[in-house]
Each structure stands twice: as structure tokens, then as C-alpha cells.
Write a structure and sequence with these properties.
The protein is of the alpha/beta class and about 220 residues long. The chain is about 40% helix and about 20% strand.
């Protein structure tokens, strides 16, 4: 039976597919039940990793993987910050956790694996602006961005890597369709959030100005 995905993970899989032809491995990081990785494995035959710190989750995933596939598919019950690999070009998808933890994992992976050039497909649960600021400060560029609504919640999805040349904007302008009222509503709420936040942290005033400039184009 083919693995079915919700809209968020389907978008992550769609974005990831652009890089899989050249990728040497795919990593389903913070994999939860492994739905994303299992979906990718139906069309991707190279090395794969499922990574999650919850041991029972990883044990259940191992039971789903056939003996013939276990030579190429590795399930690890470790924190993402402790993940290492040998491939030069992995695609690493990180979903289902907040922006702060995603940044910790990205930072650790790039530090522990200096031989490689990973492409990260990220779908933070929160703090996308703060995540972009950290990524931008470490020289990451962006290739694709998008906004998706799944089960009543919006997710900003971004594909980033140190090898991408396009600058990473703090608010991710290219993720939004200004002709879509749901996108405009989302942007207005984000603008209000950072306007409120800027009263205590003035450094976020620049973020509010960026949202104002983008909304002014609608």
C-alpha cells in the first residue's frame, strides 16, 4: 500500500524531489512515524535514514522495513544534533519541531559533517523568521519556499543550503502568493505578531517594515 501524506508533508516531499536525482541519501529527521521517509522510499533507492530520539518510534519503523531494505535504510533513536553520515550530498528534511530546535540540528549537522554539502528542507512549527535570521547569518541561501495549510495550521517551508546563492530573506517573500487571500491573512497575522514583539525587542521593527512593504504590493 502506498504511503499517504497530509498537505504539509506532501509539500516537503514535492520540494525534496527536486534534489533527489543528485542526492546520495535522504534523511527523515525528527521522523515521528516516518510517513515522509516511507513515501520518499517508494521512488528513492539510495541510502536513507530515519532519525528520532523516541526509541519506541524507531523500533516500530524498523519492523515496517523489509529485511532486503535494511542494508540501505538505517533507523536511529538519537537526537538530531548527534546525527552523522558519510555521504557528500544528503537531503535532510526536518519537520514537526520548532524553529529553534531546527537551527540547533542544522548547526550541529554542518559542524559534525564538514565534508558534505547538505540540502535542508525545513518546515518549522514556529519562529520561521528567527530561523531564517540564524541561517542567513551562517551564509545559507534559499532555493525554494512555500506556504501550506494543513489541519488548520499554516507552515512556511524552505529549502536552504550553504551552496545556494539566492539570499535568504527574513520573511521569505517568495513563499507567498499575494493574489491568495489566505496568504494575505496569514501575512497580516505575522505582521501583527512581530509588531507586538517589537515593543519589547526593537530589532524586530525591521521585520514589521518588511511585512508592510510586502503587503503594500497586494
Amino acid at each position: 500500500m502506498k504511503q499517504r501524506l497530509g498537505k504539509r508533508l506532501l509539500k516537503v516531499a514535492d520540494f525534496s524531489s527536486k534534489y533527489l536525482a543528485d542526492a546520495e541519501s535522504f534523511v527523515d529527521m525528527c521522523c515521528d512515524h516516518g510517513h515522509l521517509g516511507l513515501f520518499i522510499s517508494e521512488s528513492f533507492s539510495k541510502r536513507m535514514y530515519f532519525v528520532d530520539p523516541v526509541k519506541t518510534i524507531i523500533e516500530k519503523l524498523q519492523d515496517k522495513i523489509s529485511e532486503s531494505e535494511k542494508s540501505r535504510i538505517t533507523c536511529l533513536d538519537i537526537k538530531g544534533q548527534n546525527f552523522t553520515y558519510t555521504e557528500n550530498l544528503p537531503v535532510v528534511a526536518i519537520c514537526g519541531v520548532g524553529g529553534d530546535l531546527i537551527w540547533e540540528i542544522v548547526q550541529s549537522i554542518t559542524h559534525k559533517n564538514p565534508h558534505s554539502s547538505p540540502i535542508f528542507v525545513l518546515a518549522p512549527q514556529n519562529r520561521p523568521v528567527e530561523l531564517r535570521e540564524e541561517l542567513n547569518g551562517q551564509g545559507f541561501g534559499v532555493d525554494q519556499e512555500g506556504l501550506v495549510k494543513d489541519n488548520g495550521k499554516y507552515y512556511e517551508i524552505m529549502c536552504v543550503a550553504e551552496v545556494f546563492e539566492k539570499p535568504l530573506s527574513l520573511i521569505g517573500e517568495s513563499a507567498f502568493d499575494l493574489n491568495d487571500n489566505s496568504h494575505l491573512s496569514y501575512l497580516k497575522k505575522k505582521r501583527e505578531h512581530y509588531d507586538f514583539k517589537s515593543r519589547k525587542f526593537p530589532e524586530f521593527k525591521k521585520v514589521v517594515q518588511m511585512y508592510d512593504a510586502l503587503l503594500g504590493k497586494s
